[in-house]
Structures are given as C-alpha cells and as structure tokens.
Amino acid sequence: MFDALWMQAKIVGLATAIGMALPVYNAIAQSVSISPLVTIEQLQGSQNKTTVTVSNSSDKPLRARIATTDFTYDREVGFTAIPTHAKSAVPYLQFSPREFVVPPGVSRTVRVGFTLPPSLPDGEYSAALYIEGLQEQQVSQTVDGKKSVTTIRPRIASIFFINKGTGKPQLSIASAQWNSKSKEPVVILHNQGTTAAYPNLNWKILKGGSIVAAGKLDGIVLVAGKERSMPIKTSALTAGSYLFSGEIVSRSDGSPIKFETQLLIP
Fold first, then answer.
1. pTM above 0.85, yes or no
2. Does the N-terminal peptide bond of residue 61 adopt cis geometry, omega within 30 degrees of 0?
3. Per-residue pLDDT tens over the stretch 56-113
4. Is the distance from CB of 220 to CB of 228 less than 8 angstroms?
C-alpha cells in the first residue's frame, strides 16, 4: 500500500499511486522505482539534507526531471495532490540535479535539502517530490477483448514530512468495521499526534479464541490529526462477532502499540 505507502509507488497515466486504488500499468511500474518512498525528518536547527535514489530496471534510458507538489492523505483513497496548504514545504526544498538521465540497469542519487526559516511557527511541513519522465510512453492493454493504446508520461513520488519543533505521533486503532460493498473488513487508524507516522500493522482475526486469519500491512502513512481507513485482505468470513487484534509497529523506534477491538459481520 506507498502507502502501501502498502506503499509501493507505481507509475500511472499522469498520476502517482501512493496507497491508492488507481489503474496501474504494471510493465512500466516495475521498471522505475524511487527510494525512500516516505521520509519523516526531525529538523535539526533550520536545515537538513537527505537523498532519494531513482532506479531504472528497464532496457531504455530514463530521461527525467524533478517537480514538487503539495498533498494530503484522504481517509479512504490515500495520497491526494492539492494546490497548496498552510504547512507546505515546497518553497523550502532544494534538489540537485533538476534534470538527469538514468541509464538501463542503473540507480541515480538525487540530493534533497530543506531550509525552514527560523521565523516559521513550529509544526510539521510536507511536500511531494516527483520524478517525472520527459518522454511519453505508449502502453497497450486488452480488456474484455478490446485493445487500447494509452500515452502516458511516467511519474513517481517520494513524500517528505519535516517536523520543526518537538511534535510526536500518537497512534491508535479507532475501530474495525465490515465493508458490505467490498465484502471485507476495514481497520480505522487514528493519529492524534502532531507529526506524521509511517508504521506497519500486524493483525489477526480471532473467533472463539482461535485465529481465523492473520496478516500484515506494510507502510501506512498516517498524517497528524487524521484517520486512515485500510482494507484487510482475507478469505471470506461468515457472519458473527470476531476479535480484531495485533500491534502497530513504529518504523522509527520499533515500539509496538498493541490493540484489540470488536469486528461485527452482519
């Protein structure tokens, strides 16, 4: 989910899927990647530096440039690009190089710096950095016996949360619910803190003390002060009362947050 951040960032027609259920052209999505997908930085002083790595596993050179945008995370669909917001880090990002070529089978490092003026109020600032292909590509698909050709310009993103001050995330499970439309459970995660988090979720579903399903969600982006609704992929469950339990595992310090809540299936 990039949210995985299920999160695997995937390239789609003029959009970036970060924990989003959008159509993905798999051949292209598997050939170009960016790492890390999510960076959460505690600012030391007024500036910091980091890097992102762009890898090209295709058989053709990737000519690309860098662009930036603001974003938010919608409770249901995940990553959503927006024009701007009050805590935008876009004006404070610097990167080098701005345009580059990644040969086939090669990885390229992009340097990213950010300087927040001391006059800015404390809080968390964010931005998405896009790696944008300069050459359009044509992708053929056959759906229900009909062939179509789509022209796309690949884009993948790495997102940044920059904390100025001493804020921390505060994570919990708000509830587990049954989605009658998709016929699957969903878990509602809540971040009541003042900074974003990118944890993993280990879960299990029990009935009568016995485990009937278990799994893991890797890399869930939880924006400060918001909830995320994440589907739980599992085999069919019959009607009844279940116990949904497990732990939220922080990527920063590894401290697990245990949870336990009821899941009712009508």
1. no
2. no
3. 988 889 899 999 999 999 999 888 889 999 999 999 999 999 999 999 999 999 999 9
4. yes
- Residues 9, 156: contact at Cβ < 8 Å? yes
Q: Give the residue carrying structure tokens 């944008």.
A: 132
Question: How many Cβ atoms are within 10 Å of 181's Cβ, its own excluded?
Answer: 6
Query: Peptide bond before 154: cis, by omega within 30 degrees of 0?
Result: no
Q: Rounded distance, CA 234 to CA 263, Å?
A: 14
Phi-psi region of 24 (alpha: psi -120 to 50; beta: other; left: phi over 0): beta
